[in-house]
């Protein structure tokens, strides 16, 4: 029955118009929004995590993750141009497969957006703590990391989450202007790293190229395990689609923002990873049994104490430049990351609030969450609630564990979007599509298979967390959303 409770696309568009957000974003802002979401902890911090899992083979991991994301982006572009409203994969699934699957997708997107924002909070704190320590201003150890990472409470991760939340309450256009500036800072920092690292590349640092092999299902190690983790480096391009309801001419501008931001970031990632590996090396740290240690574990934290290895660093790119003797440039790249990474927190938190806003507007969450601030015209209630959880998760958990949990929800959502394109091609073939996924019957199945491959190469613990979270979501749905749904009751949002 849940699969039959489908909200027609025309009704989705009509509902959005009744309580709509102001359209004020253009194609350049959208592309910068996507770049701002993509370039962040994935490349600035998780380069070390990927190196621990795959060694120099992480370059292949970046390519695998980029291909899967590109396939998913083509599917996203078609649905976002057809349904230019807030809600991303949740809204698309509601209009194609029904309310039950839509709820599961929306619930999974909490892992993508909220946990992703928390992950970047931790990544930012690593750079900021390193920068402070280099000037003799470091915080006490127990305030520099969470309980699982050798500390007690990551104070800086918590504080940056709070600051970004307050900025989002102030307004979308203000946030977009700040985001554009921060994106430029990040791109300049990566360009500096590339220019300094590429001349120092040595062939010997690429051997052995795949020290941990290709990986095994639910092992979380090897090239595929690294690809499943480094997938986080590309997460965020779909945040462009969550801004559809606040976009001018969304049928044209959403595809530009999606594909343009992903293309720019892929080129930068390959150049940065090549420079980091070739210049300073990225061989994994192993335990007493000779097996590679899992990142984000107490054993890995203990093995890395006092080590200068790239895979042990919490500020990978700045650390690499310091190893090359560019201490001043390392500090400047660290400062740039400290300034610019908040743009990713901003984008991810923004995306989550818009998804919750849409779910509440559909009656699946309490209607009070859709309250708009009378002065700033933003959904301030859900923004404050989301920001609180972003800040707390960032204060308590390590970056690697958060990133993998984020990926599990993201990969599931991407699979549903790709499948939704094919369903609509069959059920509504004549519906206008301002952007059509090329070779859809090849691209979309490949997107589903690619996402499934990466999902199965996450660690067993991460997969268990995903299914436990999904089970909790189903309980919440049947206790509240199933009965309160506007579609089920024949009611409309206030």
Automatic annotation (TrEMBL):
Gene Ontology cellular component annotations, sorted alphabetically: membrane
Gene3D superfamilies xref list: Amino acid/polyamine transporter I
A matching Pfam family: AA_permease_2
Molecular function in Gene Ontology: amino acid transmembrane transporter activity
InterPro entries: AA/rel_permease1
Keywords: Membrane, Transmembrane, Transmembrane helix, Transport
Topology in membrane: Multi-pass membrane protein
Location in or out of the cell: Membrane
Primary location group: membrane
Source organism, top-level taxon: Bacteria
Transmembrane domains' residue ranges: 28-46, 58-79, 100-127, 151-170, 177-198, 218-237, 258-277, 332-351, 380-403, 409-427, 439-456, 462-480
Protein name (Swiss-Prot/TrEMBL): Amino acid transporter
Organism per entry: Aerosticca soli
């Amino acid at each position: 029955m849940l699969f039959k409770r489908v909200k027609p696309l025309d009704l989705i568009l009509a509902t959005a118009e009744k309580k709509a957000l102001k359209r004020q974003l253009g194609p350049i802002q959208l592309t910068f929004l996507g770049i701002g979401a993509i370039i962040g902890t994935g490349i600035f911090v998780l380069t070390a995590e990927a190196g621990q899992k795959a060694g120099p083979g992480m370059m292949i991991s970046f390519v695998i993750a980029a291909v899967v994301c590109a396939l998913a982006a083509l599917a996203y572009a078609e649905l976002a141009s057809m349904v230019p409203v807030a809600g991303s994969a949740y809204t698309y699934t509601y209009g194609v497969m029904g309310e039950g699957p839509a709820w599961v997708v929306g619930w999974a997107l909490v892992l993508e957006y909220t946990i992703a924002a928390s992950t970047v909070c931790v990544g930012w704190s690593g750079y900021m703590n390193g920068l402070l320590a280099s000037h003799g201003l470091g915080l006490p150890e127990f305030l520099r990391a969470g309980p699982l990472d050798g500390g007690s409470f990551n104070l800086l991760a918590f504080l940056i989450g709070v600051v970004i939340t307050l900025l989002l309450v102030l307004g979308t256009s203000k946030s977009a202007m700040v985001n554009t500036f921060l994106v430029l800072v990040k791109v300049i920092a990566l360009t500096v790293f590339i220019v300094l690292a590429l001349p120092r590349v040595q062939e010997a640092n690429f051997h052995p190229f795949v020290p941990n092999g290709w990986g095994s299902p639910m092992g979380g190690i090897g090239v595929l395990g690294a690809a499943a983790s480094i997938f986080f480096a590309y997460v965020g391009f779909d945040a462009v689609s969550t801004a559809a309801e606040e976009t001018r001419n969304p049928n044209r501008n959403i595809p530009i923002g999606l594909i343009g931001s992903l293309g720019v970031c892929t080129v930068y990632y390959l150049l940065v990873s090549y420079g980091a590996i070739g210049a300073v090396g990225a061989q994994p740290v192993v335990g007493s049994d000779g097996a590679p240690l899992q990142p984000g574990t107490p054993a890995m934290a203990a093995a890395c104490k006092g080590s200068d290895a790239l895979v042990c660093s919490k500020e990978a790119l700045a650390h690499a430049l310091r190893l090359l003797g560019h201490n001043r440039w390392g500090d400047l790249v660290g400062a740039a990351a400290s300034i610019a990474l908040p743009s990713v927190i901003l984008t991810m938190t923004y995306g989550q609030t818009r998804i919750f806003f849409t779910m509440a507007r559909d009656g699946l969450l309490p209607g009070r969450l859709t309250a708009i601030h009378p002065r700033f015209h933003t959904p301030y209630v859900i923004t404050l609630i989301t920001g609180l959880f972003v800040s707390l998760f960032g204060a308590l958990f390590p970056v690697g564990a958060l990133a993998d949990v984020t990926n599990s929800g993201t990969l599931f959502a991407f699979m549903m979007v790709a499948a939704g394109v094919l369903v609509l091609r069959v059920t509504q073939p004549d519906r206008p599509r301002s952007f059509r996924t090329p070779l859809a019957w090849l691209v979309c199945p490949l997107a589903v298979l690619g996402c499934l491959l990466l999902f199965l190469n996450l660690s067993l613990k991460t997969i268990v967390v995903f299914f436990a979270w999904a089970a909790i979501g189903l309980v919440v749905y049947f206790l509240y959303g199933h009965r309160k749904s506007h579609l089920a009751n024949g009611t409309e949002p206030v």
